[in-house]
Amino acid sequence: MVKMVAPQYSNLAPDLVKSYSPPEDKINLWHTVKRGHAESLDTIAKQYGIPVETILEFNFPGSVKAGRVDPDIVNWYLFNHQRTQCRDITRNGFNYMFSGGEKIAIPYLGHVDVGEPVILAPTNTKFKIKQHANLNASLIAAADFSIFQIWDEKAGKCSFYTYWAGGISKSVTPGFLSATLAGRWNDFSVTKAMAVNQFTGATRFTTGGGGSVTKNYINFMDLPPGTQTIPNPLPLNTGITIGIGAGTSIGNMKLELVGTPDGLLPFKGP
Q1: Model pTM?
Q2: Which of 42, 55, 58, 80 has a CA between 20 and 30 Å from the CA of residue 19?
Q3: pLDDT (tens digit, 9 = 90+) per residue, 124-157?
């Protein structure tokens, strides 16, 4: 039986991971797998004189860890990715295999550094932000957790962030403060051009209300020097809140790599 393991953080953006393509400027060509079972990732790598680990990491981010291929993650990609969708199984029953027509990106030699983070140069002053979920727990000392997606529409890139903090809150809902469902996109700008994967570090999140009547604000406190959002703090329109309460917390906004070296995902819109 084929074992599959999803790449880390794929649950944050499963559709983006399943449709991931490497940056066009790093692709030498697209290899179309021949019909039948004559080709594999190993034979394709040998054909182009590129290590199979490089081919895998280039096409399937997160499938190579510390220089070692994780076959379970490779199987997940082969089965789920839009360019492969393999259903044929090897004779030993352990792995998925090509049947023909699958597309594999071949990188320019020297353009892929497995596992090495890359920070995108500042690109824009206008962004969109969406809160996918929030849980604000406890009665007095609150634990606040949120998932955010920030989108640079002009560059066609987005990044996912997780926010975790402790703070002071009050609630009329016993057992937990509130849980907020996914909200809509919010437009905002910054005073200096920056990249969509640079909204990290110390952040204050403030929320109050319940149901569809909820006020939320976010203050990115660790942006590059001389940079802040407009307005600051930034008001957020979020989804319906289950529970009623209010709270403020200062925590850390963490960039989630979502199987990429730099946390940058191609995104053209919902």
Answers
A1: 0.55
A2: 42
A3: 999 999 988 655 554 444 456 788 999 999 988 9
